[in-house]
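Chapter review. Work through the record for HTH luxR-type domain-containing protein before attempting the end-of-chapter questions.
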Amino acid sequence: MDHTEKMSGAFKAAESLAEFAAEMASGQPLTLIDSKEYASDSKNELFRRTFQSEEVSSACEKIAHEFQLTLREFELLFHLSLYGFSNKELASVLVISEKTVKNHIANVQRKTNTKSTRELMSLVINRI
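Structure tokens for HTH luxR-type domain-containing protein:
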């Protein structure tokens, strides 16, 4: 998959994630079961493709619960883990500034006691 295809899929996925986030705004914790139920709706094929890797999703979910990450931090961690996006790409996909991406990454690293994104990715891989 080339960069253009990856970005196109990510933009579509971000739209679905935004819809999902709106439905999850009730304050309930994000769970893989909720994700699967939402994805099982035929209207949400883009969301289903976003969560095509249950292992990555599950690992990010475990980390989100263990370290009390926000939904936005979970989204960032998921996209970073699954697609390997740069800060600029994450900003574009999540429709936030690059500075906000850096702040979210710093918050995730602080909460998980990691010192780099590489160490953060190791944390995700070890949860798979």
